[in-house]
Every structure is written in C-alpha cells, then in structure tokens.
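Quick one:
INPUT:
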C-alpha cells in the first residue's frame, strides 16, 4: 500500500515554507494512517514544530556534513538524547517523554525525503508514532537531512505542586 505523498496544498501561516511543507506532509500522512512495512498504523494526532528540536537537527546535520559521516551517533559519541538536551529540550517537570530521529542523505527535496522515510519501515514508524507531538527538521550541505521528534507529558498540576 505505502504512504508516498503527492504534492499537498501548502498553507502559509506564521511558519516559513520549509517548516510548513514538512508539517503539511507529515500531518497529512498521520491524519490518514499508514502502513509501515507490513504493519498498519492508525491515524495519529498532528505534530507541531519545535525550534529546539529543529536546532538539534540542524547541528547534527551540520556536524555530519562537515565531518563527512552518516550516523545517529555523532563522532564524539553523542546520541539524540545528548543533542536535544544540549539545545534546551527540557525534561524538567516532565512525567514522561519520548524522542526519535530520522536521518537521510542525498534527497533533493522535502517531497523526496519524506517519501523515502515513508518507504523505510523504521523511519515510517517514527513518522506515525502517536507519542511524538513535536518535530524539528533541518538540511545542510550536500543534502544531509535530520528529523528529530519529541513527545513530552507534563505532570498534572496537583502532582507538580508536591
């Protein structure tokens, strides 16, 4: 079945075209549900843009581009949790959280990279994960793409007061 997308209608709001196109493409798939490999994932709530996740994605894409490697682990050993914490994606007051990352290399457009992620079972699972509520994406250099996801659940007000 697959979930590859045609050109969606892109809305112009307060986000620039890059952010808006990513959100439109991701949320269109999440709204419909999608088969990732042989597993069907039902519709998931939309994600919103998060500038901290965008910053973490940018610095990882920049690092991979400048040092010519391709991995979820930075050459200095940092992993996604380290990178999002370093840019202020805070866990203070958080009851639970989840993070995930998609990377790609060589795609020349947002449409191409999203379609490729949807064709990959593991990347598609991240795109459809209902615990992810926020996303930030960046591309650098010779088409290094990083997409960082996050989902944070705050403690209830009574629990925070304790």
């Amino acid at each position: 079945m697959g979930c590859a997308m045609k050109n969606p209608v892109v809305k112009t709001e307060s986000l620039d075209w890059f952010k808006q196109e990513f959100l439109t493409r991701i949320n269109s798939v999440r709204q419909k549900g999608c088969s990732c490999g042989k597993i069907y994932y039902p519709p998931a709530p939309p994600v919103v843009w998060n500038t901290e996740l965008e910053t973490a994605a940018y610095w990882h894409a920049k690092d991979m581009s400048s040092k010519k490697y391709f991995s979820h682990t930075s050459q200095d050993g940092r992993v996604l949790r380290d990178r999002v914490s370093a840019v202020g994606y805070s866990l203070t007051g958080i009851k639970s959280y989840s993070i995930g990352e998609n990377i790609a290399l060589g795609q020349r457009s947002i449409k191409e990279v999203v379609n490729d992620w949807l064709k990959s079972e593991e990347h598609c699972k991240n795109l459809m994960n209902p615990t992810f509520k926020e996303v930030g994406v960046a591309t650098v250099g010779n088409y290094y793409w990083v997409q960082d996801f996050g989902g944070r659940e705050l403690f209830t007000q009574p629990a925070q007061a304790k």
